[in-house]
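Risk register update: the risk that structure generation would not scale has been downgraded. Supporting records follow, first protein first.
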Amino acid sequence: MIRDRIPQIVAIGFGLFNLVIGLWAFFDPQSFFDELAVFPPYNEHFLHDVGAFQIGIGATLLLGLVWRSDALLTVLAGAGVGAFVHWVAHVRDTGLGGRDSDPYSLGSLAAVVIVAAAWRWRTQR
């Protein structure tokens, strides 16, 4: 029984770790840079992107515990979370870098992944 619990404990621990690190980088990039990611030069938008992807990784690990029997739903939903937060970063950081088309293209990609996850969830229930 304990053998079955160890991967779950690791998924919870690493999922929460990634979620917390991602939220920190996304919502307080200067503090994240000062305390943890001291790799000059400071780039606020890049840290928002890092946070978005860490949030996606954490969400995927935690959702894997919810939808244990559906790997495709898990990865689509987790990727959708990361893609959505990445889109938010590009909307929020307009003028800090990237292309003017990024909010539209990244938003469209995020929407496709989220719709695919929702479709999978709906058709598998």
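Supporting record for the second protein:
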Amino acid sequence: MRKIKLELTFPGKFKDEPIICELCKKFNIILKIMEASFSTDTGWAIITLEGDEKELTKSLDYIKEKGIEIREN
């Protein structure tokens, strides 16, 4: 199992979408929210993802496909 720490920046269009919840349901990962802040214009979250390499890769691809900015810490 591998653990990665990410900072995500969400465009305002995702304010009503359960992106983080979807990550937990779609992929076999453990997700922990370290810190987050959301408004109607934008949002950000610092999270950790833990899982096998294949599931982490699929979850990162999913986030990128949505157009969410990712910075790996």
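Helices lie at 19-26, 53-66. On this basis the risk owner (M.S.) recommends closing the item.
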